[in-house]
Amino acid sequence: MLTPRLSIAPILLLFVLGACSEPPAESRGGLGRATNVATEIIEYRPMVDTIQALGTAGANESIEIRPRISSLVERITFVEGQLVDAGDLLVELENSEIVAGLSVAEAALSESRSLYERSKSLASTQAISAANLEQLLAQVQVNQAQVEAARARLDSTVIRAPFSGRMGLRRVSPGSYVTNTSIITTLDDVSRIKLDFSVPEAFLTVLGEGMNIVASSLVYPDRIFAGRISSIDTRVDPVTRAVLVRAIIPNDDGLLKPGMFMSVDLQRNRGDVLLAPEQAIVPEGTQQFVYVVNDGVVEKREVLLGRRIPGFVAVDDGLVAGEAVVTEGTDKVRDGSLVAVAGRAVLEQQTLQQ
User: Fold this and answer.
1) φ/ψ (deg, to 5) at 276
2) CA distance 39 to 277
3) Coil, helix or strand for 50?
4) Whether CATH 2.40.50.100 fits 67-94+157-183
5) Can you give the residue ranges of every domain in the chain?
6) For the segment 75-117, what is each residue's pLDDT rounded down to a tens digit?
7) What is the pTM of this model?
8) Topology (CATH level 3) of domain 28-46+272-353
9) Per-residue pLDDT tens over the stretch 7-36
């Protein structure tokens, strides 16, 4: 009869053999089975930096209409908001005193000129000295200057448009007394708008005259205004480290007004850059990694990243074009894991089931 010790020996032997056998794939962290992941091929893509600046609209030309002399307003010939051409009559000032002064100056000139002509005919007979003749000529020149000054004052009583534009609000009435500090109205040429805005100095290398820009205004949320850079300031602000840029925007429909607040979109083309999806980046402390898939096996690789744009980040080192990186399922794999590339819909379904 066998003893109990001999009867349990096969059982112990089987237990020992079972303990020494290789554990299933699940007990080894999933290295023995493929994990479903989504991947994306790394490619060179055009990278465009977009910066939004804020600017203020200004008229192409803008002045305040003021008189050059003090007088009464005799006649106003413009209407508020009217479009006028260069040289159009805007205002006439009272000029009776100036006209009288011109008549006096012209009479004095005529008299001095007549006296000079008579004296000049006597010079050949030496009836008048050369010095006296020179004094008479000088008097003629003085009177001529007085006539020209009187005519200039008379011209100052008439105010004309210096350029084509739209008239502003009238601030005086006929009969008002105005001086050279009085503002009669304003004149703005808004056929084109000058938009001034500041751009960081980092964009200086790509800024240039003729560069296209697009601008928008809260007043017209569904409208985009296209223009071009006309000039760039010669100095960079030492405080903001920005440079002032001026763009010209056509305004044939007159929607834009001087003083309006506008936002400007400016683009900087960096050329083709190796871009990786942001979701493929796995940060660990100060280092950045990606999981590269090669023949169904994952390789954890450190990468050096550059500038970011929405959804992507530039890879300066660590990847080459054509490699596939894990974009979905990075939390389920590690270096050396077996993976199977599945569609995004499959991964989403698995997540819902979990």
Assistant:
1) -120, 145
2) 10
3) strand
4) yes
5) 28-46+272-353, 51-60+192-271, 67-94+157-183, 95-156
6) 999 999 999 999 999 999 999 999 999 999 999 999 998 888 8
7) 0.59
8) 2.40.420
9) 444 443 333 444 444 444 333 344 457 889
